[in-house]
């Protein structure tokens, strides 16, 4: 859906060269898809490492943050599980403070998943590392997912696809049908009744 908007922006002169970036993104997704489907690929491994904990997803400002929010919503809807998203470097201010007191609880509940585009500023990259180091005792685990592809757009879509498949592997592990979302139908029904 986004491709047509990006191509329209290119035609209007706002995003020159985006068609080439989209072609590279499509090529990266074709390279990655079989690995994501496999029970032994990167998506299955990340799902295994998350296990029955809730993922705390961090991405760098911009595309990394958008990828983290996508992962969150896919885990919520497909795996029917809580997930949380944050943005580097912002999480190194307020969120970092939250790991001082409840480590006995958070260690059982949260796995940090760093979504890395590989093009982050070196200070932001260092913050990913430091956040994991400073909180590892209060987390079930820390997982780094490194995107592949030529260019930020290809790496962004690579992260998005990996996250989509992680959510499906989490759902499959628990025998959850990722399709129907009864609670959303109930919410809509109740909202419609208030009119």
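Q: What amino acid sequence fits the structure above?
A:
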């Amino acid at each position: 859906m986004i491709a047509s908007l990006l191509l329209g922006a290119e035609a209007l002169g706002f995003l020159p060269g985006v068609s080439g970036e989209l072609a590279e993104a499509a090529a990266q997704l074709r390279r990655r898809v079989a690995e994501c489907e496999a029970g032994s690929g990167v998506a299955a491994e990340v799902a295994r490492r998350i296990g029955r904990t809730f993922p705390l997803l961090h991405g760098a400002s911009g595309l990394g943050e958008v990828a983290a929010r996508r992962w969150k919503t896919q885990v919520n809807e497909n795996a029917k599980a809580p997930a949380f998203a944050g943005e580097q470097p912002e999480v190194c201010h307020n969120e970092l403070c939250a790991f001082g007191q409840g480590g006995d609880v958070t260690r059982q509940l949260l796995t940090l998943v760093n979504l890395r585009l590989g093009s982050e500023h070196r200070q932001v990259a260092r913050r990913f590392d430091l956040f994991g180091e400073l909180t590892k005792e209060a987390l079930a685990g820390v997982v780094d997912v490194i995107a592949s592809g030529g260019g930020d757009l290809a790496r962004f879509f690579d992260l998005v696809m990996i996250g989509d498949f992680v959510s499906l592997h989490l759902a499959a592990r628990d025998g959850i049908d990722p399709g129907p979302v009864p609670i959303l139908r109930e919410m809509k029904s109740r909202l419609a009744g208030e009119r």
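Q: And what stands out in the fold?
A: The radius of gyration is 18 Å.
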